[in-house]
Amino acid sequence: MIRRDDRIGILAATVGGSAKGWLLTLVVILTSGGCVRRRLTVRTNPPGAVVSVDNQLIGTSPAATSFTYYGTREIRVEKDGFRTEAVKNKIRMPWYQLPVLDFITETLWPWEIRDERIVDIELVPQTLEPSENVLQRADQLRNQSRAGVVTAPR
User: Fold this and answer.
1) Residues contacting 41, CB < 8 A, separation 6+
2) Any idea what the Cα angle at residue 63 is, between residues 58 and 67, rounded to 5°?
3) What are the backbone angles phi and psi of residue 103, rounded to the nearest 5°?
4) 106 CB-near residues (< 8 Å, 6+ apart)
5) Please, what are the domains in the chain?
6) Which pLDDT tens digit goes with each residue over 22-64?
7) Partners of residue 115 on adjacent β-strands
C-alpha cells in the first residue's frame, strides 16, 4: 500500500524537478477544496403558485433557487383565487460563514457543504367584495370630492 506522502512524492517526481512538482502538488491540493452550496426552497399550500424572490421569477411552487449572499429576501407568491402574499424572510448566516472561517469552508475544506433553507407560505383564499359595496363607496368618494373633503386611503 502506498502512503499519502509517497503518492505526493511520486506525483512531484513525475512532473519534473522537485520544486516544480511540489509547487504543482500544493496548487492541486489547495484548489481542490470544497464549497458551500446555498439553496432556497419556497413551498406553498396549495402548491402551484408563481414564486418570485427579490423580483426575480423562480417558477411555480414548490420552487427552488440558489443564492450567494445571506440577508433579507422579499418573497412574493401569486395564485389565481388567492391573495397575493409578499413576505420578507431573513436568511441568517451560519457559523461556518463568519469571516476567516468562510475562507476555510469555501476554499480549504475538502467536502461540499449544503445550506438548504425552506420557506413555507400558507395562501389565503381571496374574498371578493360585493359590487354593491364598491359602488356605494365610489359614490361616497365622488360626493366627498365634489364637496372638497379629502379622506385618507384605507
Assistant:
1) 62, 63, 64, 116, 117, 118, 119
2) 60
3) -65, -40
4) 33, 34, 35, 36
5) 1-32 (no CATH), 34-142 (2.60.40)
6) 776 666 665 655 677 889 999 999 999 999 999 999 999 899 9
7) 38
**What is the four-CA torsion angle of 94, 95, 99, 102, rounded to 10 degrees?**
-70
Nearest CA to 113 out of 31, 33, 36, 39 is that of: 36
CA gyration radius, the chain = 29
Q: 36: buried, middle or exposed (CB in 10 Å: 19+, 13-18, 0-12)?
A: middle
What's the pLDDT tens digit per position in 75-87? Answer: 999 999 999 999 9
**Which residue has 365634489 as its cell numbers?**
146
First to last CA, the chain: 78
Around 34, how many Cα atoms within 13 Å sit in the side-chain half-sphere? 11
CB count, 10 Å around CB of 62?
15
Distance between CA atoms of residues 28 and 26, nearest Å? 5
C-alpha cell at 9: 512524492
Place of cell 370630492: 145
Helical axes 18-31 vs 4-15, angle rounded to 10°: 120
